[in-house]
Amino acid sequence: MNQQHYQAAIAAFDKANAEDRNIATADGKEYPKELLYAHRMTEMQQRYAPEASEAVQLAVRAQHIQRWKIPRSDYSMDRQGYLQWRVALYKFHADVAGQLMQDVGYDDEMVARVKTIVSKKGLKVNPETQLMEDVADLVFIEHYMIGFATSHPEYDEAKWIEIIRKTWQKMSQRAHEFALAGKIKLPEALVPLILKAVKE
User: Fold this and answer.
1) For residue 171, which of 28, 158, 165, 175 is within the disulfide window of CB 3.0 to 4.6 Å?
2) Domain ranges of the chain
3) DSSP states along 11-71
4) Per-residue pLDDT for 161 more than 80?
5) Which pLDDT score is estimated for 191?
6) Contact yes or no for 110/117 (Cβ under 8 A)
7) Which has more pLDDT, 89 or 190?
8) Cα 49 to Cα 54: distance, rounded to the nearest angstrom
């Protein structure tokens, strides 16, 4: 690993995410929302896969970089609009991360590798993309699933089981075992639904 390039890229990613005016709270402190998310991604990657490559470590930190710049409200509020938004986000995150990496001196090969991971190309077949997806799903379950549940009180049990299964299906067997072995903090209120969803 080129520590000079790596540290400079991480600092650039964090500086970009620190511009987020949306605030999230953790442990009684306030943070720019996407900066907190990025740090949670790195923390989970270090817990789940400390052996991850330099490219994965960079991609994990940049996965949601400046997400607020492409709001969901810019697209129609239906499934087609949602899918268009997701595709636009993948490209945007990859382009921003790639440009910042170039700015600090990374070569084209490493930039392309990270952009492939961030844009989620080759999920299930590219091990580096799958590793980042595992980390993202573990972070969602541990930190964000309960908030998502609170914001959707209209969802019934069947809907929640569907959501949990969709998340579960994106994860590798290694991530399944990690989650069920008590290596992450499952949202207590949703544990019965999570166990039901993954065992049926």
Assistant:
1) 175
2) 3-199
3) HHHHHHHTT---EEEETTEEEEHHHHHHHHHHHHHHHH-TT--HHHHHHHHHTTTTGGGS-
4) yes
5) 86
6) no
7) 89
8) 12
Per-residue pLDDT tens digits for 116-158: 999 999 888 899 999 999 999 999 999 998 888 778 888 888 8
H helix or E strand, kind and range, residue 31: strand 29-32
> At CA 6, angle to CA 88 and CA 178, rounded to 5?
70
> How does DSSP classify residue 107?
-
DSSP secondary structure letters along 124-136: TTSHHHHHHHHHH
* Residue written as token pair 């980390």: 135
Residue 51, Ramachandran bin (φ over 0: left; ψ between -120 and 50: alpha; else beta): alpha
Distance CA 106, CA 2 (A): 9
User: What is the dotted CATH code of the domain comprising 3-199?
Assistant: 1.10.3210
Secondary structure of 135-190 as H, E, C letters: HHHHHHHHHHHHHHHHCCCCCCHHHHHHHHHHHHHHCCHHHHHHHHCCCCCCCHHH
Q: Give the least confident one: 139-143, 172-176, 196-200.
A: 196-200
Q: What percent of the chain has pLDDT over 70?
A: 100
Looking at residue 200, its pLDDT comes to 60
The sign of the torsion formed by the CA atoms of 76, 82, 83, 89 equals positive
Please state the pTM of the whole predicted model: 0.94
Instruction: Supply the DSSP symbol for 69.
Output: G
